[in-house]
Amino acid sequence: MNHKNKVEMETKNRKKSSVGRSIGLYNDVMVGIEDSPARKEPDNNKQKDKNIPSDLYPTGENIFNSNHLRINKEKKYYYVRVKTEENKDKESPISKYKESPISNFIVVPLYTTVRQNGKQVYMLKLISNNQTKVVEFDGETLAIQTAFKKHCMNNGRFNWYGKQTNLDSLINMILTSPMKELEFIPYMGWNEKEGIWIYPSHAYYRDKVVLADEDGIIAVKGKNFKVDVDKDDEYRIHPHIDTTPSKEDLVTYFKCLKLLYGQYSNLAFGYIAGTMNVDAIVKETDYFPFLYLYAKHGQGKSTAVKEYTKMAGINVSLNTPPSLDSLRKGMSRKSSMPFVVDEAENKNENSKGIDFFKACSDSLKNNVYMRQDFIRGHKDESAIIRFPVKATLMLSGEVLTSVPSIIQRSVLFDASKINFNEEAIRKVKALKEVPYWVGQYLMRTSYRWKHNFLRLYHEILDYFSSRGWGNIHIRIRSHYAMFLASAFAAFAQLNDFLEDEIFFSDPEERKEIYQFVYQEMKETQQLTIEDHPAMDFLRKIGLLAKKDQLQNNSDYKCVKEDGSTYLYLAPSNIYEAYNMSERIPFYPSSNKVVKDLQTYSFFIKKVKHRIGASNPTAWLIQLSDPGNPESIKDGIVHPELPDTMIYFYK
Fold this sequence. Notes:
Blueprint: H1 3-16, H2 21-35, E1 70-72, E2 77-83, E3 97-101, E4 106-114, E5 120-127, E6 132-138, H3 139-143, H4 145-154, H5 164-175, E7 180-181, E8 183-185, E9 188-191, E10 196-198, E11 202-205, E12 208-211, E13 218-220, E14 223-227, E15 235-237, H6 247-261, H7 264-276, H8 278-285, E16 290-294, H9 301-309, E17 314-316, H10 324-332, E18 334-335, E19 338-341, H11 353-369, E20 374-377, E21 384-387, E22 392-397, H12 404-408, E23 410-414, H13 422-430, H14 434-444, H15 446-449, H16 452-466, H17 474-498, H18 507-531, H19 533-546, E24 556-561, E25 564-569, H20 571-581, H21 590-597, E26 603-608, E27 617-622
Parallel strand pairs: 4-7, 8-14, 9-18, 16-22, 16-23, 19-22
Antiparallel strand pairs: 1-2, 2-3, 4-5, 5-6, 9-10, 10-11, 11-12, 13-14, 15-17, 20-21, 24-25, 25-27, 26-27
Helix pairs in contact: 1-2, 6-13, 7-17, 16-17
């Protein structure tokens, strides 16, 4: 068989092989060395040096026959030829040579790529008699023989003791090799640009499953990817599951979850499904809420967190809350995956939870919730470091936080209401692979069901309005609608898989969860209203109106339009009276007050309006209940306002 045919056959076989592309490439190198023209050396030298085939090394340069680099493929090392001692000083037309090794390994070039910092790097497989490893080299490390030697030895028992000229020949071989382009992805999970779910061990492209090779390379869509994240013992990716659960197992699993967690099971599942769809959701809403589980120790909240995060394909270890730096890194390296903060607020002497909210409250509100990049300074004053917010946030703590802004941005899960049904617990444990399969199936098919979210989201919001639930803050209604829409869309996809309308096919079942959600929304709003400093501010200025320290038609004005009662407040006058009455005012200015008030539905707008002799930019507030405006005559104000605001009604 001639050289060309043999190379073609080996290449063909390599493509069919399941061993891996890198081994196949190494075989091509070896075939080329074996079948190239023989070296002109004495027969007693059994090691035969060969040329590299021109199709593998396009320059066709006789690299391994140079004076600077030759290869011993059997013993796997590079060498140079030196004259034997007995012929060293003799003049002879035929000189005798021996091998002088300059390494204990050989190199197979695999991939080339450009790092985020713009540096060109090369992925090379180092092969010795007892070790094989893929090692990354940047240009500087590869170019200088001392740096090259150190890097080889840092990555294993690979020793290079050649000179710079020998290394230059090796570099020439590497640069003329047909290396494939490799793209590093600095996070795991959903990659919107490529439309794939990618993890260190596997990837999902639509319905396809692609496993990483022995070097961690994933070949999909005609490209080569490697997930470049630090090993994370707290977030271990579960291997892909090939075995499909039975219909009975799927139905039993979700029934058991509902027995244990009630309707919270559907909200938690909606959070996981929404997390998979967070990019599309944020395009519609500009924000994504937290899921917040709270209950005393031993109530089962940690077990619930671990069970639902399995549907994101991960095994989570729950540790103390992260620092701000760890939060930034964690949220940017897990795309469309949950980032869990356990013990978020325990309120005991040993807890770091209170410090977590104190240190990270602004970041949670402005970055995580609003999906805005974290920004950190750089040692170069002209540069900044950005951490994109890719994950969603799951909070867990022994008590509910006292920070109203966190409550308002969360869907709450009261874990004290968990039902410890022993039979359900036993079955869930027995079906331990089912949640992983569910999550992996929803990832693989997300392109089929995620478009249903927007339709369901708007349908649910319209349903809330049709039921007269407009008294609930729009942000809170939006949060619960997101999770319900995500749950319904994901369950519909599972129904499609089962070819049966199993989940939420009964209209009464939906009415049941809607009624549950309404009660939850009311409780969330009540917690927000009672605790928020803005509510305390309104409560106190209402008492100032009662004491006539705020005067009608001077500091405020009450008007009736279209059956509803509205209140105009003169900001400077109102704040001055508040500031005088407080020993330590919470708000330093009226501007700070209005920023908080604007988040509530009773706040209409800021508008120029004459109040007595002045014409300030007043705060316009709806004082009466929009559902029953006439009830203000009975002392009932807007449901989001403190009761003391009735004293402005004259």
